[in-house]
């Protein structure tokens, strides 16, 4: 199993031998290419890489190291992981416990670990709030400085940074140290780990948004922050497949393969900014993956397309606001792509 990467390599953290700050060619990660078929690989912004194995074990590639190390957590096994700029969440296989930790003080300064404080915790630590609720966990999701936990009863809880209603409610305090219920009819929440604006699908398949809107990323036609959950009317009667939130824009993929974006120039796939959603003309898209300032699209023919802001993307074929085709051919159909977390790096895993 080979893991290839491109993007930011500052301080290593990707498991390659080069000391170059940016890797502009697909390069094998020696540390991650150890035969394990990872379920998920995520990376914080200029921080550590965390990988989840099929056996439910966690591994970390520290910011300044080139060797993958196991994260010891007694007998606990995990089924999912998520990260923001510098904090991580994990849910156990029984889906009744949520754990959080960070490797940098910025990963806890707003209470995004959910432990009723801003103390640094560098090992997965149980958030007892959810254990006491006794309701199974449906989804975990991180924004840049906040955390979301969706329960099986469709209640969405949030904690962390809330300066511009990042958590879905208006509050003069910038920190929410304990989980608080913000939505009661949530089917799925969307945040790619590096933004301060979020979307969610309600139980009626309506798309809503809340949080920071300084670049028009909600497509509402203005730059007003959404201080309460607000329905995104543009997508009424449309079936949503996925939503990505990079730091300045939003990208929405419909089940019919059509792709739309709004927000900052370049990161929205266009050379000019847009405060309304516009369609991006890429044929037959089936999946999308998000990076800090860029989006990667996978077509039904397993072709890769990308668009974004090249000062952060640094893939050698990239141009600001221009959709390009990445000249990479998969060896077979058994591959995975990971861009999760606040990373400007991409991982491609294939046999």
TrEMBL record:
Spans of repeat RCC: 96-153, 205-256
Family matches, as InterPro entries: Ran_GTPase-activating, RCC1/BLIP-II, Reg_chr_condens
Family annotation (Pfam families): RCC1 (PF00415)
Signal sequence coordinates: none
Cited Gene3D superfamilies: Regulator of chromosome condensation 1/beta-lactamase-inhibitor protein II (2.130.10.30)
Name the record gives this protein: Rcc1 and btb domain containing protein
């Amino acid at each position: 199993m080979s893991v290839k990467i491109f993007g930011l390599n500052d301080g290593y953290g990707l498991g390659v031998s080069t000391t170059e700050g940016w890797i502009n060619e697909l390069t094998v990660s020696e540390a991650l290419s150890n035969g394990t078929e990872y379920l998920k690989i995520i990376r914080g912004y200029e921080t550590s890489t965390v990988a989840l194995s099929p056996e439910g074990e966690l591994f970390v590639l520290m910011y300044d190291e080139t060797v993958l190390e196991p994260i010891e957590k007694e007998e606990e096994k995990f089924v999912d992981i998520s990260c923001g700029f510098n904090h991580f969440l994990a849910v156990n296989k029984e889906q009744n416990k949520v754990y959080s930790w960070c490797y940098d003080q910025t990963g806890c300064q707003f209470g995004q670990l959910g432990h009723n404080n801003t103390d640094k915790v560098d090992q997965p630590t149980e958030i007892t709030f959810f254990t006491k609720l006794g309701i199974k966990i449906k989804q975990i999701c991180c924004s840049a400085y906040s955390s979301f936990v969706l329960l099986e009863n469709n209640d969405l809880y949030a904690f962390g940074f809330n300066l511009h209603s990042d958590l879905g409610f208006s509050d003069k305090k910038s920190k929410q140290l304990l989980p608080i219920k913000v939505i009661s009819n949530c089917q799925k929440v969307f945040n790619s780990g590096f933004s301060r604006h979020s979307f969610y699908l309600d139980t009626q398949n309506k798309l809503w948004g809340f949080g920071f809107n300084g670049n028009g990323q909600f497509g509402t036609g203005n730059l007003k922050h959404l201080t309460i959950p607000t329905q995104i009317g543009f997508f009424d009667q449309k079936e949503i497949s996925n939503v990505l939130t990079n730091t300045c824009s939003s990208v929405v993929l419909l089940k019919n393969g059509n792709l739309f974006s709004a927000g900052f120039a370049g990161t929205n796939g266009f050379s000019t900014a847009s405060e309304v959603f516009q369609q991006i003309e890429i044929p037959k898209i089936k999946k999308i993956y998000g990076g800090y300032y860029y989006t990667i699209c996978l077509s039904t023919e397993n072709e890769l397309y990308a668009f974004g802001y090249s000062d952060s993307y640094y893939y050698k074929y990239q141009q600001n606001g221009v959709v390009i085709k990445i000249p990479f051919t998969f060896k077979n159909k058994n591959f995975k792509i990971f861009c999760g977390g606040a990373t400007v790096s991409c991982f491609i895993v294939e046999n």
